[in-house]
Amino acid sequence: MEKTKISQGPWNRIRPLQRDEMDIYTEAGMVMGEMTWGRFRNNLVKVMAYTPRLLQTEVEYCNTFIFDPETFRGDVQEAGFNDRFIKELVISRTSLQNRSRYSVTHHSFIGYKLFADAGRQEEGHMKLLHLHEHELYPEVYTKRERLALDYTVKVAKDAHLVTDMEFCNLRHALREHNMGDSRLKKLSDEEMDRYADSQIVELTWLIGHFCLLNRWFTVLQVPDEGAADEDNFLAVYEQIVPEDIRERNEKILAGGF
Prior knowledge:
Strand order of the largest sheet: 1-2
Structural class: mainly alpha
Distance between the termini: 25 Å
Helix content: 55-70%
Number of strands: 2
Order of helices and strands: HHHEEHHHHHHHH
CATH topology of the largest domain: AhpD-like
Number of domains: 2
CATH architecture of the largest domain: Up-down Bundle
Radius of gyration: 19 Å
Strand content: under 5%
Oligomer: single chain
CATH class of the largest domain: Mainly Alpha
């Protein structure tokens, strides 16, 4: 039975809960997710609120490998081994592979805005537009990006598909990229190997977690936030994300979740 007095858009399998239907601790987790994930009052946290402890812990947990920048405890780096740009490409490639609407739409917005805010709008446009078939556009992506995206597709499909050679090639590409970083190029060979392995561990966890989220969004049919919801994400999505990327998304999603 619906008890909320808050405006709510259409839903299918699971009705997103509203803040006037939950206890204060669950609401606190919900607000944390809203504040750190785009400042949208979003259906991700409203559906996750059915399992309060999951909601309360998921936000900080996810941020450690999705959004946290380089983070140190003294001299020990604890997070941010890969930059946000490669992470957003990997997230969207995983989600396109799994045809998961909520991740595809929201991270098209997050990824495009990330590139645009960094003054890399045209680059981001091309990389996001061709992401579903990145292997056909080698000129659009760097060597590191191509190998990371190849790896992403295989891990998302079936992790058994990744060969030792592909794994070594990815590690080598990451090392090459790291040599262009003024901080990392000072590392010894042993330290550089460990750093590249940290990057692979972080990327692989990112792929795996979004495979989990993709399936969760899809089977529960978590809806995008529209005009009848508290915040109209779809209006911002249509305003910010270029039409050709949105059309590509719809073609792959084929009207489904």
